[in-house]
Amino acid sequence: MAQLIDGKAFAASLRNDIAEEVAKLHQQGITPGLAVILVGEDPASQVYVRNKGKQTIEVGMSSFVHKLPESTSQTDLLALINKLNNDNSVQGILVQIPLPDHIDADTVINAIDPRKDVDGFHPVNVGRFSTGGNGTIPCTPLGCLMLLKDQLGDLSGARALVLGRSNIVGKPMSTLLLNENCTVTTAHSRTKDLQEECRRADILIVAVGRPEMVKGSWIKPGATVIDVGINRIEQDSGKARLVGDVQFSSAAEVAGAITPVPGGVGPMTIACLLLNTLTAALRQNDLPIPTWIPTQN
Ligand SMILES: Nc1nc(=O)c2c([nH]1)NC[C@@H]1CN(c3ccc(C(=O)N[C@@H](CCC(=O)O)C(=O)O)cc3)C=[N+]21
Question: Per UniProt, where does NADP(+) bind (predicted)?
Protein backbone atom coordinates (compact mmCIF):
# COMPACT_ATOMS: atom_id res chain seq x y z
CA MET A 1 0.00 0.00 0.00
CA ALA A 2 1.18 3.48 -0.86
CA GLN A 3 2.21 5.94 1.79
CA LEU A 4 -0.32 8.73 2.26
CA ILE A 5 0.99 12.27 1.60
CA ASP A 6 -0.80 14.38 4.21
CA GLY A 7 -1.26 17.78 2.56
CA LYS A 8 -3.61 18.93 5.28
CA ALA A 9 -0.98 18.44 8.01
CA PHE A 10 1.83 19.88 5.87
CA ALA A 11 -0.30 22.96 5.10
CA ALA A 12 -1.04 23.48 8.81
CA SER A 13 2.66 23.38 9.66
CA LEU A 14 3.45 25.76 6.76
CA ARG A 15 0.83 28.21 8.06
CA ASN A 16 2.55 28.07 11.48
CA ASP A 17 5.87 29.03 9.90
CA ILE A 18 4.14 31.84 7.99
CA ALA A 19 2.50 33.10 11.19
CA GLU A 20 5.93 33.31 12.87
CA GLU A 21 7.28 35.50 10.06
CA VAL A 22 4.15 37.65 10.15
CA ALA A 23 4.64 38.13 13.92
CA LYS A 24 8.15 39.47 13.18
CA LEU A 25 6.65 41.90 10.67
CA HIS A 26 4.12 43.09 13.25
CA GLN A 27 7.07 44.12 15.46
CA GLN A 28 8.21 46.37 12.60
CA GLY A 29 4.74 47.86 12.29
CA ILE A 30 3.88 45.89 9.13
CA THR A 31 0.71 43.81 8.67
CA PRO A 32 0.53 42.06 5.26
CA GLY A 33 -2.89 42.42 3.62
CA LEU A 34 -4.58 40.11 1.11
CA ALA A 35 -7.52 41.30 -0.99
CA VAL A 36 -9.74 38.64 -2.56
CA ILE A 37 -12.32 39.60 -5.18
CA LEU A 38 -15.25 37.28 -5.90
CA VAL A 39 -17.63 38.12 -8.72
CA GLY A 40 -20.93 36.21 -8.67
CA GLU A 41 -22.42 33.57 -6.40
CA ASP A 42 -20.79 30.28 -7.48
CA PRO A 43 -21.22 28.08 -4.35
CA ALA A 44 -17.81 26.33 -4.57
CA SER A 45 -16.05 29.69 -5.02
CA GLN A 46 -17.86 31.07 -1.98
CA VAL A 47 -16.55 28.19 0.15
CA TYR A 48 -12.96 28.71 -1.08
CA VAL A 49 -13.10 32.47 -0.54
CA ARG A 50 -14.45 32.01 2.98
CA ASN A 51 -11.65 29.52 3.82
CA LYS A 52 -9.02 31.85 2.36
CA GLY A 53 -10.30 34.79 4.43
CA LYS A 54 -10.38 32.74 7.63
CA GLN A 55 -6.85 31.36 7.20
CA THR A 56 -5.48 34.79 6.20
CA ILE A 57 -6.61 36.17 9.57
CA GLU A 58 -5.32 33.09 11.44
CA VAL A 59 -1.73 33.76 10.26
CA GLY A 60 -1.99 37.40 11.38
CA MET A 61 -2.60 39.09 8.04
CA SER A 62 -5.41 41.48 7.12
CA SER A 63 -8.13 40.02 4.90
CA PHE A 64 -10.17 42.21 2.56
CA VAL A 65 -12.93 40.29 0.79
CA HIS A 66 -14.78 42.09 -2.01
CA LYS A 67 -17.96 40.27 -3.06
CA LEU A 68 -19.38 41.76 -6.24
CA PRO A 69 -22.65 40.85 -7.97
CA GLU A 70 -22.64 38.64 -11.10
CA SER A 71 -23.76 41.71 -13.10
CA THR A 72 -20.61 43.73 -12.26
CA SER A 73 -19.16 45.36 -15.38
CA GLN A 74 -15.57 44.77 -16.42
CA THR A 75 -14.97 48.52 -16.09
CA ASP A 76 -16.07 48.51 -12.44
CA LEU A 77 -13.91 45.44 -11.69
CA LEU A 78 -10.88 47.11 -13.29
CA ALA A 79 -11.55 50.25 -11.23
CA LEU A 80 -11.52 48.19 -8.01
CA ILE A 81 -8.24 46.51 -9.01
CA ASN A 82 -6.73 49.92 -9.74
CA LYS A 83 -7.79 51.10 -6.29
CA LEU A 84 -6.24 48.02 -4.63
CA ASN A 85 -3.03 48.41 -6.69
CA ASN A 86 -2.65 51.83 -5.03
CA ASP A 87 -3.76 50.76 -1.52
CA ASN A 88 -0.77 50.52 0.84
CA SER A 89 -2.61 48.20 3.24
CA VAL A 90 -2.87 45.58 0.45
CA GLN A 91 0.22 43.55 -0.60
CA GLY A 92 -1.62 40.74 -2.39
CA ILE A 93 -4.59 40.74 -4.79
CA LEU A 94 -6.47 37.63 -5.95
CA VAL A 95 -9.40 37.65 -8.37
CA GLN A 96 -11.26 34.36 -7.96
CA ILE A 97 -11.57 32.38 -11.18
CA PRO A 98 -13.84 31.52 -13.02
CA LEU A 99 -15.23 34.97 -13.85
CA PRO A 100 -18.63 35.60 -15.50
CA ASP A 101 -18.66 35.30 -19.33
CA HIS A 102 -18.96 39.06 -19.93
CA ILE A 103 -15.60 39.67 -18.20
CA ASP A 104 -12.32 38.88 -19.96
CA ALA A 105 -10.04 37.08 -17.48
CA ASP A 106 -6.81 38.02 -19.32
CA THR A 107 -7.67 41.73 -19.23
CA VAL A 108 -8.39 41.48 -15.51
CA ILE A 109 -5.18 39.55 -14.71
CA ASN A 110 -3.14 42.03 -16.75
CA ALA A 111 -4.54 44.90 -14.67
CA ILE A 112 -3.13 43.58 -11.37
CA ASP A 113 0.20 45.10 -10.30
CA PRO A 114 2.63 42.19 -10.85
CA ARG A 115 4.17 42.81 -7.41
CA LYS A 116 0.73 42.19 -5.86
CA ASP A 117 -0.15 39.23 -8.12
CA VAL A 118 -0.07 36.47 -5.46
CA ASP A 119 -1.63 33.93 -7.89
CA GLY A 120 1.37 34.24 -10.23
CA PHE A 121 -0.97 34.56 -13.24
CA HIS A 122 0.29 37.93 -14.58
CA PRO A 123 2.42 37.56 -17.76
CA VAL A 124 5.31 39.40 -16.06
CA ASN A 125 5.44 36.76 -13.33
CA VAL A 126 4.92 33.87 -15.79
CA GLY A 127 7.84 35.22 -17.84
CA ARG A 128 10.14 35.80 -14.88
CA PHE A 129 9.52 32.42 -13.37
CA SER A 130 9.86 30.61 -16.73
CA THR A 131 13.25 32.21 -17.33
CA GLY A 132 14.54 31.34 -13.86
CA GLY A 133 13.90 34.70 -12.20
CA ASN A 134 12.01 35.38 -9.01
CA GLY A 135 8.47 35.80 -10.32
CA THR A 136 5.55 34.65 -8.15
CA ILE A 137 5.02 30.91 -8.48
CA PRO A 138 1.35 29.85 -8.90
CA CYS A 139 -0.02 28.48 -5.61
CA THR A 140 -1.14 24.99 -6.66
CA PRO A 141 2.09 23.99 -8.47
CA LEU A 142 4.15 25.45 -5.61
CA GLY A 143 2.16 23.39 -3.11
CA CYS A 144 2.65 20.22 -5.20
CA LEU A 145 6.40 20.87 -5.39
CA MET A 146 6.69 21.34 -1.63
CA LEU A 147 4.93 18.02 -1.03
CA LEU A 148 7.19 16.28 -3.58
CA LYS A 149 10.41 17.65 -2.08
CA ASP A 150 9.28 16.74 1.41
CA GLN A 151 8.59 13.20 0.21
CA LEU A 152 11.54 12.61 -2.12
CA GLY A 153 14.23 15.19 -1.33
CA ASP A 154 16.26 16.02 -4.43
CA LEU A 155 14.18 15.52 -7.60
CA SER A 156 17.14 15.68 -10.04
CA GLY A 157 16.95 13.19 -12.88
CA ALA A 158 13.49 11.88 -11.99
CA ARG A 159 11.11 11.19 -14.86
CA ALA A 160 8.07 13.41 -14.24
CA LEU A 161 4.82 13.36 -16.16
CA VAL A 162 2.35 16.23 -15.83
CA LEU A 163 -1.09 15.32 -17.12
CA GLY A 164 -2.84 18.59 -18.02
CA ARG A 165 -1.59 21.79 -19.64
CA SER A 166 -3.63 24.63 -18.13
CA ASN A 167 -2.01 28.01 -17.50
CA ILE A 168 -2.98 27.69 -13.82
CA VAL A 169 -1.57 24.25 -13.03
CA GLY A 170 -0.15 22.06 -15.82
CA LYS A 171 2.17 24.48 -17.60
CA PRO A 172 3.69 26.10 -14.48
CA MET A 173 4.01 22.64 -12.86
CA SER A 174 6.06 21.40 -15.82
CA THR A 175 8.24 24.51 -15.62
CA LEU A 176 8.83 24.06 -11.88
CA LEU A 177 9.80 20.40 -12.29
CA LEU A 178 12.16 21.32 -15.13
CA ASN A 179 13.75 23.91 -12.83
CA GLU A 180 14.22 21.03 -10.34
CA ASN A 181 16.14 19.06 -13.00
CA CYS A 182 13.44 16.49 -13.67
CA THR A 183 12.98 15.03 -17.13
CA VAL A 184 9.51 16.40 -17.82
CA THR A 185 6.73 15.26 -20.12
CA THR A 186 3.55 17.32 -20.43
CA ALA A 187 0.70 15.05 -21.51
CA HIS A 188 -2.88 15.99 -22.45
CA SER A 189 -6.03 14.81 -24.22
CA ARG A 190 -4.24 14.38 -27.55
CA THR A 191 -1.23 12.48 -26.18
CA LYS A 192 -0.63 9.16 -27.95
CA ASP A 193 -0.35 6.06 -25.75
CA LEU A 194 -1.22 8.10 -22.67
CA GLN A 195 -1.34 5.13 -20.30
CA GLU A 196 2.08 3.98 -21.48
CA GLU A 197 3.49 7.51 -20.91
CA CYS A 198 2.05 7.55 -17.39
CA ARG A 199 3.57 4.14 -16.59
CA ARG A 200 7.07 5.51 -17.32
CA ALA A 201 6.79 8.27 -14.71
CA ASP A 202 8.56 8.26 -11.32
CA ILE A 203 6.50 11.36 -10.49
CA LEU A 204 2.94 11.64 -11.79
CA ILE A 205 1.01 14.90 -11.42
CA VAL A 206 -2.61 14.78 -12.57
CA ALA A 207 -4.57 18.00 -13.22
CA VAL A 208 -7.21 17.33 -15.85
CA GLY A 209 -10.52 17.81 -14.03
CA ARG A 210 -11.86 14.34 -14.96
CA PRO A 211 -13.07 12.32 -11.98
CA GLU A 212 -11.00 9.17 -11.32
CA MET A 213 -9.57 9.08 -14.85
CA VAL A 214 -6.15 7.66 -13.92
CA LYS A 215 -6.33 4.03 -12.72
CA GLY A 216 -3.82 1.97 -10.77
CA SER A 217 -2.85 0.10 -13.96
CA TRP A 218 -1.51 3.41 -15.40
CA ILE A 219 0.96 3.87 -12.56
CA LYS A 220 4.57 2.69 -12.28
CA PRO A 221 5.04 0.57 -9.13
CA GLY A 222 6.52 2.78 -6.42
CA ALA A 223 5.80 6.07 -8.21
CA THR A 224 4.85 9.27 -6.34
CA VAL A 225 1.38 10.43 -7.38
CA ILE A 226 0.04 13.97 -6.85
CA ASP A 227 -3.68 14.32 -7.53
CA VAL A 228 -4.68 17.95 -8.21
CA GLY A 229 -8.31 17.17 -9.16
CA ILE A 230 -11.24 18.14 -6.94
CA ASN A 231 -14.48 16.80 -8.42
CA ARG A 232 -17.88 16.77 -6.74
CA ILE A 233 -19.73 13.53 -7.50
CA GLU A 234 -23.45 13.18 -6.76
CA GLN A 235 -24.08 9.88 -5.01
CA ASP A 236 -27.28 7.81 -5.07
CA SER A 237 -27.93 9.00 -1.52
CA GLY A 238 -28.09 12.55 -2.93
CA LYS A 239 -25.01 13.57 -0.96
CA ALA A 240 -21.98 14.89 -2.84
CA ARG A 241 -18.61 13.15 -2.51
CA LEU A 242 -15.22 14.66 -3.41
CA VAL A 243 -12.95 12.62 -5.68
CA GLY A 244 -9.71 13.42 -7.45
CA ASP A 245 -8.58 12.85 -11.05
CA VAL A 246 -6.95 9.59 -9.87
CA GLN A 247 -8.90 6.49 -8.84
CA PHE A 248 -7.54 6.41 -5.31
CA SER A 249 -8.33 2.79 -4.35
CA SER A 250 -6.56 1.16 -7.31
CA ALA A 251 -3.74 3.75 -7.43
CA ALA A 252 -2.88 3.29 -3.76
CA GLU A 253 -2.16 -0.40 -4.41
CA VAL A 254 0.57 0.43 -6.93
CA ALA A 255 2.01 3.84 -6.05
CA GLY A 256 4.81 4.38 -3.53
CA ALA A 257 3.10 7.50 -2.18
CA ILE A 258 -0.09 9.36 -3.09
CA THR A 259 -2.04 12.48 -2.08
CA PRO A 260 -5.67 12.00 -0.96
CA VAL A 261 -8.66 14.12 -2.04
CA PRO A 262 -9.69 15.95 0.05
CA GLY A 263 -6.74 16.67 2.34
CA GLY A 264 -3.98 16.65 -0.28
CA VAL A 265 -3.21 19.46 -2.71
CA GLY A 266 -6.24 21.67 -1.86
CA PRO A 267 -5.08 22.83 1.58
CA MET A 268 -1.56 23.40 0.17
CA THR A 269 -2.98 25.78 -2.45
CA ILE A 270 -4.35 28.08 0.25
CA ALA A 271 -1.20 27.82 2.41
CA CYS A 272 0.92 28.78 -0.63
CA LEU A 273 -1.37 31.74 -1.32
CA LEU A 274 -0.51 32.98 2.19
CA LEU A 275 3.17 32.22 1.54
CA ASN A 276 3.07 34.25 -1.68
CA THR A 277 1.37 37.09 0.20
CA LEU A 278 4.12 37.00 2.84
CA THR A 279 6.81 37.05 0.13
CA ALA A 280 5.04 39.94 -1.64
CA ALA A 281 4.88 41.93 1.62
CA LEU A 282 8.59 41.32 2.32
CA ARG A 283 9.57 42.41 -1.20
CA GLN A 284 7.35 45.49 -1.10
CA ASN A 285 9.07 46.51 2.15
CA ASP A 286 12.57 45.76 0.76
CA LEU A 287 13.07 43.07 3.41
CA PRO A 288 15.05 39.84 2.80
CA ILE A 289 13.18 36.61 1.99
CA PRO A 290 13.91 33.95 4.69
CA THR A 291 15.87 31.01 3.30
CA TRP A 292 13.22 28.46 4.35
CA ILE A 293 10.86 29.85 1.70
CA PRO A 294 11.52 27.56 -1.30
CA THR A 295 12.51 28.58 -4.80
CA GLN A 296 11.82 32.28 -4.29
CA ASN A 297 15.41 33.40 -3.77
N1 LIG B 1 -7.58 33.25 -8.64
C2 LIG B 1 -7.77 32.02 -8.18
N3 LIG B 1 -6.81 31.42 -7.42
C4 LIG B 1 -6.97 30.16 -6.94
O5 LIG B 1 -6.08 29.62 -6.25
C6 LIG B 1 -8.20 29.46 -7.22
C7 LIG B 1 -9.15 30.12 -8.02
N8 LIG B 1 -8.91 31.38 -8.49
N9 LIG B 1 -10.31 29.50 -8.34
C10 LIG B 1 -10.63 28.18 -7.84
C11 LIG B 1 -9.39 27.36 -7.55
C12 LIG B 1 -9.63 26.18 -6.64
N13 LIG B 1 -8.86 26.43 -5.44
C14 LIG B 1 -8.88 25.61 -4.30
C15 LIG B 1 -8.34 25.98 -3.10
C16 LIG B 1 -8.44 25.18 -1.97
C17 LIG B 1 -9.11 23.97 -2.00
C18 LIG B 1 -9.26 23.14 -0.79
O19 LIG B 1 -8.90 23.54 0.30
N20 LIG B 1 -9.84 21.94 -0.90
C21 LIG B 1 -10.12 21.02 0.20
C22 LIG B 1 -11.57 20.57 0.18
C23 LIG B 1 -12.53 21.71 0.19
C24 LIG B 1 -13.95 21.25 -0.12
O25 LIG B 1 -14.52 20.54 0.73
O26 LIG B 1 -14.44 21.58 -1.20
C27 LIG B 1 -9.26 19.78 0.10
O28 LIG B 1 -8.89 19.41 -1.04
O29 LIG B 1 -9.00 19.15 1.11
C30 LIG B 1 -9.65 23.59 -3.21
C31 LIG B 1 -9.53 24.39 -4.34
C32 LIG B 1 -8.21 27.62 -5.57
N33 LIG B 1 -8.47 28.19 -6.78
Answer: 164-166, 230
* 42, 46, 48: residue to mutate for ligand 1 pocket, most atoms within 8 A of CB: 48
Residue 230 Cα: closest atom of ligand 1: 28
Q: Is 52 a catalytic residue?
A: yes
Residues of the chain within CATH 3.40.50.720 domain(s) are 139-266
In the residue annotation, 55 being an active-site residue is answered as no
Residue nearest to ligand 1 atom 21, measured at CA:
266
Q: What's the rounded Cα separation, in Å, for the pair 241 and 225? A: 21
Q: Does domain 139-266 have CATH number 3.40.50.720?
A: yes
Q: 122-151 pLDDT, tens per residue? A: 999 999 999 988 899 999 999 999 999 999
DSSP state, 117? B
pTM of the model: 0.97
Residue whose CA is closest, atom 12 of ligand 1?
Answer: 48
Check if 266 has its Cβ closer than 6 Å to any atom of ligand 1: yes
Distances (CA, A) of 69 to 34, 66, 253: 20, 10, 46
CATH number of 28-116: 3.40.50.10860
Decide: residue 131, CB within 10 A, 0-12 exposed, 13-18 middle, 19+ buried. Answer: exposed
